Each structure stands twice: as C-alpha cells, then as structure tokens.
Amino acid sequence: MTFTDTPHAPQPVAGDRRRWFALAIVMTAAFMDLVDVTIVNIAIPSIQRDEGATFSQIQWITAGYALAFAAGLVTGGRLGDIHGRKRIFLIGIGGFTVASALCGLAVNPEMLVASRILQGAMAALMVPQVLSIVHATFPAHERGKVFGLFGAIVGLGAVSGPLLGALLTEWNLFGLEWRPIFLINLPVGIAGLILGRLFITESRAPRALKLDLVGVALVTLGLLMLLYPLTRGRELGWPLWGYASMAGALLVFGALVAYERAKGARDGSPLIELSLFRVKSFAAGIAVQTVFGIGLGIFFLVWTLYMQVGLGWSVLRAGLTGVPFSVAVSVAAGMSVQLLVPRFGRKVLQAGALVMAAGVLVYLWEAERYGQAITSWQMALPLVVMGAGMGLIVAPLTDAVLSEVPREHAGSASGLINTVQQMGNALGLGLVSVVFFGVIDEGLTPAATGPAFVDGFQHALGWVAAVLGVIFLLMFALPERPAQHVEGAEETPAAVEKEPELVS
Prior knowledge:
Layout: H1 18-51, H2 55-83, H3 85-104, H4 109-137, H5 140-171, H6 180-183, H7 185-199, E1 202-204, H8 213-236, H9 240-267, H10 280-310, H11 315-321, H12 323-344, H13 346-370, H14 376-402, H15 410-435, H16 446-474, H17 493-497, E2 501-503
Helix pairs in contact: 1-2, 1-4, 1-5, 1-7, 1-10, 2-3, 2-4, 2-8, 2-15, 3-4, 3-7, 4-15, 5-11, 5-12, 5-14, 8-9, 8-15, 10-14, 10-15, 10-16, 11-14, 12-13, 12-14, 13-14, 13-16
C-alpha cells in the first residue's frame, strides 16, 4: 500500500462496520495500559515484601514507567503520523507484551524497574495511536459517543485493575506470588496484535513528515532533568545538583519551544505542533490534564500504602475497598459525555472537580476521626463521591481538548495530551517523597509504622484537595461547550481538507 500526498484523502465511512472492530481493539489496548497501572499499585506492598525492595525502588517501579511513558509519548504520536498509526500501534502493543513478560520474570527489583521502564516506552508507542486512530476513523458526529465509551473503559479499567491485582496476588497462582499481574497481559497483547492487523485501517498525516530528532532529544532531556531529581531527591538528601537539574530543565524546554517554532517555519515538520496551543480549548485542556495528573499521581500510590501498610489490610481487602470508587468513576464517565456535557457544557467538568474535592475532604475527616480503626464501609461514601467527581472529568476533558484539533495533527495532539497527563502523574509520584514520605520519620519501629503512614496519608489528602481547587480555577479557561456539541456545528471544508488518508 502507498500513501499519496493529497488534500482530498478518503474520509471516514460511517457505514464501515470495521471501524467498530478497530475501536474494540484499540480500546482493549487502552484498557490493558490502564489496568497495568492500577494493578501494579495494589501489588506494590507485596512486591516490596517479597523482593525486599526499598521505598525508593517502589517509587521507581511506578515512576520509572511514568517517566518513560511521558518522555516517549509525543514522539510516539508523531511516529504514528509519519509511518502510519496502525503500524506503530502494532509495534507498541507487541513491545508492551514482551516487556510485560520481562516484568513477570524479573529476578530482583532492579530488573523489575528496568522492565517497567521498557514497558513505559512501549506504551508510549501504543497509547497515542488509540485516540488518533479514533480521531481519524470516526466522523465528528460519532466522536461524542466514542469518547463516552472511552470514559466508560477508563472506569472499567479502574474497577478491574485493583480487584484483579488483589485476586491474582492473593491467589498466588503456581507459587508465582505477584508475577501474574504482569503475565496476564500476554494473551491480551497477542490477541490485540493479531486482530489489529486484520481490522484496523491504516492512517497517517496527508503531508510527508519527518521525525524531528532534535525535538525528541530536547523533550526527553527536559523531562528527565525535571523528574529524575524530583523522584530521587528525598533518598539522596535533596542534593544541590538536583535543584540545578530541575532549573536547567526549564531552560531546555525554552530551547525546545524556540527550536520547534523555527523548524515549523522552515519545513513544517516539528515534533510538537505549536500552532495547537493557539487553539484555546487545547491549551486550557493541556493545563488541566497536567495538574489533574499530579493529583492522581499523589493519591493512588499513597492510598495503597495507607491501606496495606498503615492499616495492615490484606491486598484483597484493599482491592475490594476500591470497588465503590471505580464503579462510580465508570458510571459518571459514561453519563457525562452523552447526557450532561451536551446540556451543561464546561460546568460538568467544574462540578466534577468540586465533587471530587468534597470527597477528598470527607475522606480526610474520616481518616482523622477513626484512625487505624476505620473500616471499608466507612470509606465507601467518600470514595463514591470522589469517583463520581473523577468520572465527570475524565471523559469530557479528552473530548474538550481534541474537539477543535485538525485531524492532520491528531497524533501530535494525542501524544501531547497523554504526555502532560503522564508528566503530571510522574510529578505527583515524585512529590510523594515530599507530601507523604517527607512527614514520616525513618527507622520506625513496626508498632509506630502504621500510625505514621495514617498521618502521612492525611497530609497527602490535604495536598490532593488543594490540587483539585487549582483544577477548578483552570477550568474557567476551557470553552463553555466543546465544538461538536454546539447546536448546528459541523466540520468546515477547511477541516475536511485536513483529513488523514485512510488506507484499506
């Protein structure tokens, strides 16, 4: 098959049933990535106990994945634009499957961390293609429904991950302890690889693009300079070079912007399409995604440590305790795009931020009141409120960010959305050293460990509530309604001319 550089590329065909099979495949890949993150969080204490991992290595099992993911997402999105989104998706899902096998076979914490970094890098090839394949395959009037499904998948991943991780760890299948949480990706990944070759239609940007290697180097360097010292700072005693590295990262990002602007003017093929930031909905959504990622990065790791170490609960009890939260996310996400956003627009997202913050504050009050005597049932109310708030944000936010993006830049935009979310997540994981471990004394006795972790959790919840307040304020910069929800809105001829070519 060949690609032609024509502005009159074939458009998505509404009657082509293959697009729904393709959607199921890419959504399964997105689900696998989401489950992988949550399934690892719930198993972290077991990994620490069985492998003798330090707290620093625990952070790296999660943050190493997020670092590699964030550093490679923009590049992964652009590679899909250049070489074909189907091709890069299949490479990514194949590599993710191999990396999952290596994680499951890891013989020590160092090998597990390295395998997780590889897994994050492969996810960086796979995940950006999900939204860009959807964006290129479905016409505008169908995308609201698709993003609603995407939100439901996010919720389902949140439901399945902790519970599946708890069951697999508790069952200790074949004496493998925590390892099946990674090995379960193998049959799913292999099926996705085979079916993806059959049903996904190839697409790419209509203009011939080249990979911006200097841009790749600057993005990767800047992110590593920012996130590496933040993640390891506490362990190393916050050395001076760490602060210098984080300050230097800002200079690298400044150089990146200047270089990308010059490259865009020179040959029209930058790694980051800076013109996207002139789209108000995209720029505002990117800011919200970043800060939201910070809050989630802090909460989920600390929450797991709180239940299993602070309260001494089993992995299965911790997993079951999270089910109300996950169900609430799934239900609210499914409702938000289809029912609420078309009627209330941006107010739905802002309500989500306030509802989630209210849930956090109720959780904080309960944690202080009941201490180590708190029960799963007492946690259910704040978790349902938090989950409902999160569900109101996750699905419509993606829709709002991408609603006005030309399809020729779908890969770049998708890569940026996922990058800033993962960068925020990695920042949040790095901040765990400050907002959680930073208030816990070293060398605690076993008797003092539980109360110290409970106190650390309460301190971290205060930070999460503050982050959600910032998100609420940032949301005022979002458009009142995504473009496709405005009555009578339709794609302009100019937008149609920017469609990517679809290749059967």
